[in-house]
Write a structure and sequence with these properties.
heterodimer; A: mainly alpha; MetI-like fold; B: mainly alpha; 13 helices; globular
């Protein structure tokens, strides 16, 4: 996305001037929380083992403040981050425990007797049904709670899929450079050149029968080029950096350099992007459900689909659209707030 | 400068060729394939075989691709089956494209007019309530799905208050068509009521759509004005005693606009995505609404041209932005 978060390390170094020792210490400390606790792989070979030991040794001598630690220090006192975190945690908990929290069975039409297609298609609130029911007499409150699970599943799986695809492409491009880079990035550019919703629609059209998976795959594919570009940017920035040069000089295999020295350091911006991508996935999923690409099985509650179905009744019952929309907005806002404050905290430029 | 443009055009050509290949394979892998899509599922095997022969589907892939490209270059995308049954797919695109351009450009203009001044003042009064309020506003703008914004605007201002039309692009006034840009047509033919009607229909959809670029443009403007305000040349300009207006115009805003320019180019994609949703909510007859209808009705001919054109337009706009960028910032050319 923006250039500022592609390479936090480099500008970080420049702030510390050219003192070589300080730079290496800082570097070691930065990769420490991720590489040090992991046991040294047996087959990693001599030089790699030496390097790991050396890195850990440096940390023990002089504990630096890692990028993540320092970020956490500031995040702990950042109300925006805490708000985002709270929303996210509550949402995830509700999604996990939805079947136990929901007061009623979300699939059963309790109030179907009160549905009058002509005069009163949507039963209003009554004792036991605080938000009323939908057009099939099902408890709206329970459906909203149960819907959180679908929303979480779609969002997380789509983001994971996009991340995995982007990881593969971006690592290939960033680690090897040269013609591999050109080839992969051209493909990514083409993918980026198709507007996201159009791409998702085209992928959805390929499925003979739309399902939950069509939706997830469509959104995942849309995310792939974004992650790929981001990872490539971070990897490229590191390819010429000192710690990779040092690893190369020590004769470490290329695959080990990529997986153990470059990838972990490229993760910062990627994690930020993943948090933001979750918000986008949830909104995209809702948008796609809204225009009819989604799970055709309307029994299973999902916020986007609920919003889409509510369109038939908006003239007299706009509340049917408000509730799922508010849920989507709050959750998307939670992820966005968290992602934005993470980005800010990890951005060395704002480390003042 | 010319070399830069030529280089970018060559790159563009590559993208379009890969894109056409993707589209070709995409079309072939649609459920049931093109034959089923055109004949329906009840066709007999003999019919299918004859149809395949007529379409050249029994030929090797590369020959099929060349023929396919030939047809695309001549603008033959087949006949619509769902959007406007019987009409030529290309004609549907040509009729609806101006509507989407009207909608998206109005949205961008609204977003620019609000976001740039707001971004500038938020940055100038960094940390003030205006700053914080705008940040919260732009974050909410990101989190609210655009079709919900559109729905709210439609519900409040069109249905409840009845101030503005609920759907469509223009009232049925028997207006003369010249360019198919309805506002422009009304101005050209001096049928003022036609322009006014088109404008009224445009207000709600374009405000809804404007929330997408607004949030992004605001944030970029604010961030880059903050950056530029710290620059030495701004301090120098102040020290020289230049007036605030000149500093604002020549030193701060001009430099701060570079990232904004890029972001507008990148926003074309999400604008189009937003247009799909906004047009659906307002039944606004643009290409977004056609996309949804053709998708729902499995109208592959129309879907095909719309996907291709969406991508081409996106790439072209980005090329234009890049060239504009090179004009504004000479450093880009030597990259």
């Amino acid at each position: 996305m923006s250039n500022s978060d592609e390479n936090p390390k480099k500008s970080l170094f420049s702030r510390y001037g050219d003192r070589r020792k300080a730079r290496i210490d800082e570097l070691a400390a930065m990769s420490a929380p991720r590489t040090a606790p992991a046991p040294v792989p047996v087959g990693a070979g001599g030089p790699a083992e030496d390097l790991t030991v050396h890195e850990s040794g440096t940390i023990e001598e002089k504990p630096g403040v890692s990028l993540w630690q320092s970020a956490w220090h500031r995040l702990r006192r950042n109300p925006v981050f805490l708000l985002g975190l709270t929303i996210t945690v509550v949402f995830i908990l509700v999604a996990i425990f939805a079947p136990w929290i929901a007061p009623k069975d979300p699939l059963q039409g309790y109030l179907i007797d009160k549905v009058r297609p002509q005069s009163n298609p949507i039963p209003g609130p009554e004792p036991g049904f605080p938000l009323g029911a939908d057009h099939l007499g099902r408890d709206l409150m329970s459906r909203l709670i149960a819907g959180s699970r679908q929303t979480l599943i779609v969002g997380v799986l789509a983001t994971l899929g996009g991340f995995a695809g982007g990881l593969l492409l971006g690592t290939l491009a960033g680690a090897f450079g040269g013609w591999v880079d050109s080839l992969v990035m051209r493909a990514v550019d083409v993918m980026l050149s198709i507007p996201s919703l159009v791409l998702a629609l085209s992928i959805g059209a390929l499925a003979a029968r739309p399902s939950q998976w069509t939706l997830i795959i469509a959104i995942a594919v849309v995310q792939v080029p974004i992650f790929a570009r981001l990872l490539r940017g971070s990897m490229l920035a590191q390819r010429s950096s000192d710690h990779v040069l040092a690893a190369q000089a020590l004769g470490i295999r290329r695959s080990a350099i990529v997986t153990r020295h470059m990838l972990p350091n490229a993760m910062g911006p990627v994690i930020v992007q993943a948090t933001l991508a979750l918000a986008v996935s949830i909104i995209d999923a809702a948008s796609l459900s809204f225009i009819g690409l989604g799970n055709p099985d309307q029994r299973i509650p999902e916020w986007g689909a609920m919003l889409g179905q509510s369109q038939r009744f908006i003239y007299d019952n706009p509340h049917l659209a408000y509730y799922p929309a508010i849920c989507i907005i709050i959750v998307a806002l939670g992820f966005t707030l968290m992602g934005e404050s993470l980005r800010e905290a990890l951005d060395p430029k704002t480390r003042r | 400068m010319l070399r830069y443009i030529v280089r970018r055009l060559v790159q563009l050509l590559g993208v379009v060729i890969i894109l056409s290949m993707l589209l070709f394979f995409w079309l072939r892998s649609l459920p049931g394939g093109p034959v089923n899509a055109m004949l329906g599922e009840r066709a007999t095997p003999e019919q299918v075989a004859r149809f395949e022969q007529v379409l050249g589907l029994d030929q090797p892939l590369h020959i099929q691709y060349v023929r396919y490209m030939g047809r695309i270059l001549q603008g033959e995308f087949g006949t619509s089956t769902a959007v406007l049954p019987g009409a030529d797919a290309m004609d549907i695109f040509l009729a609806r494209f101006p509507a989407t351009i009207e909608l998206t450009s109005t949205a961008v203009i609204i977003a620019l007019l609000v976001a740039i001044p707001l971004g500038y003042f938020a940055a100038r009064r960094h940390g003030s309530w205006l700053d914080n309020l705008s940040i919260v506003g732009s974050l909410i703008g990101i989190a609210v799905p655009v079709f919900f914004t559109a729905f709210l605007l439609k519900y409040w201002f069109a249905i409840e208050l009845g101030w503005l039309p609920v759907s469509g692009r223009q009232d049925n006034l028997g207006c003369t068509r010249i360019t198919k840009f309805f506002i422009l047509d009304g101005l050209l033919t001096r049928e003022w009521d036609c322009s006014v009607s088109a404008l009224k229909h445009l207000i709600l959809p374009s405000i809804a759509l404007a929330t997408i670029p607004f949030a992004v443009i605001f944030r970029i403007t604010r961030a880059s004005v903050l950056d530029v305000l710290d620059e030495d040349y701004v301090r120098t300009a102040r020290a020289k005693g230049l007036t605030a207006r000149i500093i604002r115009g020549r030193h701060v805003l001009r430099n701060a606009m570079l990232p904004v320019l890029t972001i507008i180019g990148l926003q074309v994609g999400s604008l189009l995505a937003g247009a799909i949703l906004t047009e659906s909510v307002f039944n606004f007859p643009g290409i977004g609404e056609a996309l949804v209808t053709s998708f729902r009705g499995r109208d592959w001919g129309v879907l095909q041209i719309l996907v291709l054109m969406a991508a081409v337009v996106f790439v072209l706009v980005n090329l234009l932005v890049d060239i504009l960028y090179a004009v504004v910032d000479p450093r880009v050319r030597t990259r």
